[in-house]
């Protein structure tokens, strides 16, 4: 927004200029919290802000004439910058002129000469009085003391300056009055009126009675500001009706109060030809026009003068590049900043005028920002789309300013805008389902698997911690079987595992970042327990107490191959660890029996020959593990002459044990479960690939 105030130049320091808090529509008590700052565009500090009252105060006494010279308007431009949110307000303060300067002539006494043969109506130009005040407080009129021969005429120049001239109204007679003494008074339009005086002494001379005449007396020339030094501006056209020395003229600059001595540094005048040329570079931005007064003086006795007035108006050329001013930049900016968030306040300046001073600001179209015009020559850079630090951690923003001149002039300024991270990305496992294997009976602390996750955020938002979730799938919490390193995701066993009890574990792993709020994701690790030969075979038939023997009778007269009995054993392990083989322990004497290695059947190897002596056999059952484990049973076989011939009648073969049936069922279920889980894992991996 833009605020406008006015203050007289004679106002005392500490005076109130305007109620900022009221005009901005804010509570004065919030100005200090919002870090209100006052920035003067000219670099000089003339004002201050009373943060407690919210009032703009005058800091030093103002002098309009020192600040703005002869300018018709005098304005001081300020910028108010407030934060939370970031805002820029422009303040324009008009300095009002006060009639604090009296008119003053360049010289307290003016000496003029006029020939006695001068005709009535002859004009004698006078020096213009100076009054630094402007408007109605500047020079209003001139007055001349009463005179029989002279009167005062006031002409208005093209730039509005009033030029006093003494006009001869009655013929002169040097023999009667050789010198005339007058008083010229300059009055301003102030209230009260102020004045200044100068003494005018007019010497009446003889002879040369025709002054040089400039045609036209007032002329105007247009000149481009970039013309080279030495360029001809004009050649004055001055004539003198006299002859000889009275008609020879010499030209010189006449210094006026409007620009005392300034144009003489930029223009040169040939005293013989009257040619005016440039002698220094011209700058439209320094001054757009110059008023040049030339005196043409003949060589008569007494010499006579003519006066020419030339106004040189400069044509602006696009010779100034725009200037970019970064008033404020908010960096870093949160990546979740809403569209329209103010990022920077940018001002532009161009010393040229008209189209040459019209400036456009541009930024690259592919950037997620746009420029919004706040007010004249001030812009706001705001977000124009979503920001994503994971795609771009910052932007080099180049602001380009182009004017409308021909040819165009441009300048650019680049600044870096950092994007601050927001926890908008959850950690992600590379594989959501994975598997691992661990040997049963491994010591607690054995490495099982290393879960790995990544988070594209940064800082605390990307600091990850791992944990194991208890999902209730096992009767005992999963954390009693496994533990995880919360920093690197490495899974270890927390206790020894038993294949025969649990063959596979579903271990849900959660990874969580340290953002606020924290984000997380989970993965499932299938841990397969590898079997170890830690169970010896168990003989289920014949079932005898430990340390006892199984007694079996057979007929004494049976043929070789006769099935005596069958040993049945099981092993709680699986795979090759559960493959069983049956053996007879060697004795000192040969036994007429043999055992089938795989089936455990004990058969008669040779005829007993009618002997009824009992035979003691030790049958050993071994598994196929490493190292191999075994169990044994003692069987006493007694031949009897009246023994039953049919084996089936002498004893019944053992029926399938419920334990065997359950074990077989468990093995089948485990095999199917493992196969199904492997298929699911392979399918997920293939889909992600």
Automatic annotation (TrEMBL):
Signal peptide: none annotated. Residues 6-105, 106-214, 215-324, 325-429, 430-539, 546-651 form the Cadherin domain. SUPFAM superfamilies: Cadherin-like. Keywords: Calcium, Cell adhesion, Cell membrane, Glycoprotein, Membrane, Repeat, Signal, Transmembrane, Transmembrane helix. One of its GO terms (biological process) is homophilic cell adhesion via plasma membrane adhesion molecules. It comes from the Eukaryota. GO terms for molecular function: calcium ion binding. It holds the Pfam family Cadherin. Its main location: membrane. InterPro entries: Cadherin-like_dom (IPR002126), Cadherin-like_sf (IPR015919), Cadherin_CS (IPR020894), Cadherin_N (IPR013164), Protocadherin/Cadherin-CA (IPR050174). GO terms for cellular component: plasma membrane. It is found in: Cell membrane. The chain crosses the membrane at residues 663-687. The keyword Membrane applies. This is PCDGM protein.
